[in-house]
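Study this fold:
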Amino acid sequence: MSKAQKEISVSEFFAKNRHLLGFDNKRKALLTTVKEAVDNSLDACEEAGILPDVFVKIEQTDAERYLVTVRDNGPGIVKNQIPNIFGKLLYGSKFHRLKMSRGQQGIGISAAGMYGLLTTGKSVKITSRTGARSDAHYYELQINTKTNDPQIVKDTTVKVDWPHGTQVQIELVGTYQKGRASVDEYLELTAIANPHARIEFVDPAGEMIEFPRGTETPPEPTTEIKPHPYGIELGVLIKMLKDARESTVAQFLHSEFSRVSSATASAICDKAGISSRSRPSRIGTHEAETLYKAMQETPIRAPATDCLSPIGPQQILAGLLKGVKAEFFTAGTRPPAVYRGNPFQIEVGLAYGGELGPDPTDADEEAAKAAEAVVRRGKVVQETRGPAQARLMRFANRVPLLYQLSACSIYKAVVDVDWRRYGLSQPGGNLPMGPLAIFVHMASVWVPFTSEGKEAIADYDEIRKEIKLAVQDCARKLQAYLNRRKKAKYESDRRSIFTRYIGEVVNAVSEIKRVNKQELTEQLLALARRITARADEKVELIGGEGKGKKKPADTPGSEYGENTIVVEREESDAGPLFAK
């Protein structure tokens, strides 16, 4: 039996369990490949302070084979790092640092290359240029799944017409389809969450789709932080003590952890009954456990938040205005919070009405009609659709999450909200109904995904609470807008009923007393307009600045609150995401 035991490499494990990384079917495999390459491109550009220009092309080379090309204008990759980045799993610069970024594990792009190799036998092709004065380095790589090492098939220099950046090409077996959870939707949502990026996409039919830049303001740069005492586990602490270079435990606590001052370090040692001058490497397992408990019981400030770069309400509005064609927009960002010692921040945006669908509150009789089917001779011959379910857009560190909706903490928090309080219908245990798009973004140094595929956020109480509070804050602004519109609709209905009978009233009065019919009609119309003046507020609020114009409603004393926009769009101003 002992002779049958042998070690396997991490790449060999994931080659046999590719579903853990998002390669469990052909359609999803194509999406995951594009996603990993685009995420790397955006990260590289942002770290270099460059506004991203990303080019994506998918070419069909055979019945179920596609060549994916992704090119960016980032700083490029130095020559000796290219093989390991694209040909070795769990190799990267982001796993051990606490700093917000899209990638975390060092798996994604190399796993995509491995999937392409397994399904087509083709190498990954990488072209990277670090500056206009140098030629581009060109590699063709394959990953050795037994040793988790890159195999260089070709290494040369080439001429390219772009000054700096990286291009990766992967041929794989896949399926290209439009619609939900597709490459198209991923790029559209990426453009919304990253309004500072410009993305060009050429689909297999050769059609070019451009997502223009919505803002010239890049995200705020982030700084790396040290781990917080509340966020580590006992085993990690024991290893850190053994590897410590500091001469005393107090120095170790002060230099290796975030928000631990010299005074706090001394307080932790006193609570643990350990001398602050003890050498860290000589701390035994029992003493380490005592020290760990003392760290958890000592009041320590929350970790710094300059490691986070939230999108911000104004940029969320810019992204929503660019991609979602609605008539009401609002956004908000919660103050930073902490889970397991890791700082995070929740942001929410709402878009309502417009191209998102019919408004169920327009008229009671229309709503009733929408809920009924026309039946003739025992057969349904016509069925009008009622309001659709709200659309939930989930993001983690600016990356769209397209799968495992019901397993995600974002979904659970949004469903927890009682949307009926805010003027929307909501079936039990489901998303609200109506022409509504809900944007939820979690920014964190370490997003707690439920799996290596990074498709859903784990359900921590702290995270769910912050999401719910952020959604409720935006929902209150939407409620104010809906209430005002409902009042305007009520007054408009009153006016229409009154004006409907003005002619009969004028005729009846003229039979009793000689009057000028035209003057009396104008007087009664003026009276109707004055009494129902609130009916004109909708026109003023939505169309006061002309069609296709946005009108911010974040002025002091506004009925809706800050970071709110009301807009009317022309039909030709249809957006790429929801105006299908």
Remarks:
- The chain has three domains: 10-211, 229-297, 310-580.
- The first helix runs from residue 10 to 16.
- The chain is about 35% helix and 20% strand.
